[in-house]
Amino acid sequence: MRRTVFPNKLLPWLLLAPQLAVTLIFFYWPALQAFRQSMLKEDAFGLSTKFVGLANFRKVLADPAYLNALKVTVVFSLAVALSAMAIALFLAVQVEKIRCGKGFYRTLMIWPYAVATAIAGMLWLFLFNPGFGTLAAPMRALGFNWNPLLKGDQAMGLVIAAATWKQISYNFLFFVAGLQAIPKSLIEAAAIDGASRRHAFWTIVFPLLAPTTFFLLVVNTVYALFDTFGIIHAVTGGGPGRATETLVYKVYNDGFVNLMMGESAAQSVILMVIVIALTAIQFRFIERRVHYG
């Protein structure tokens, strides 16, 4: 293995400087500011501040609305991550079976990822809004009492469907790449030995997709926790009755709408700790089962 030797010891740091600057300015500095603000109590206009220590954290953790947001986040994140990955894997496997026009189908599947998150939310709102939605009228004609603006379970199902649809294309792209990296000789050998397609998939293909699946599990978890804010904001606004208010949306509501800056900062710190813990658990207990061949 060749080792790269730089002629000047300062050169590696100069090459790393742009990335280090971006990381420090846009990641570590805001995190430190949020932690500092979580220890303060200030008025809505930021004219006076008072150090209160961990009082904001105690208040947040004792708030029933925050515990409800935590429950909603768990259900929402699990449903979005697992659904988006399962559907994308199924579509990737089906596309690989196509003999003619495979590239055309792949392109159609990837297009939805180019849609902005807020726009994706508006598309689903226009389709399923009980007042003017394109698909809402046929649903009522079939006798289905559809009204996600008033029924929490229907609102949750709608935002889960919208967030899942938005993420399928991303997962599909990586699963297709993973399937193409699997040697065809392994599948042919399994077929010669009499293995069915289903048996070959679960014993050969799926285990070899473990690195891709693990990577997408981490990415989809972060996506469900943070990147779905635009969809929830556009479709339900956290309602009805906080039925779709996730942790990141509650941070926005308390900080930018209700101007409770200290409590909002404490919630963002707790959310950051949750994400770090989830990522660490995934790498600690799930990655060891991943075979990188």
Automatic annotation (TrEMBL):
Q: Which InterPro entries match?
A: MetI-like (IPR000515), MetI-like_sf (IPR035906), UgpAE/MalFG_permease (IPR050809)
Primary localization = membrane
Q: Which UniProt keywords apply?
A: Cell inner membrane, Cell membrane, Membrane, Transmembrane, Transmembrane helix, Transport
PANTHER family the record matches: BLL4140 PROTEIN, SN-GLYCEROL-3-PHOSPHATE TRANSPORT SYSTEM PERMEASE PROTEIN UGPA
Q: Which Gene3D superfamilies match?
A: MetI-like (1.10.3720.10)
PROSITE patterns the record matches: ABC_TM1 (PS50928)
Indicate what this protein is called per its UniProt record. sn-glycerol-3-phosphate transport system permease protein UgpA
Q: Does the keyword Isomerase apply?
A: no
State its role.
Part of the ABC transporter complex UgpBAEC involved in sn-glycerol-3-phosphate (G3P) import. Probably responsible for the translocation of the substrate across the membrane.
What membrane topology does the annotation report for this chain? Multi-pass membrane protein
Q: Where is the signal peptide?
A: none
- Asked whether the UniProt record includes Methyltransferase among its keywords, one would answer no
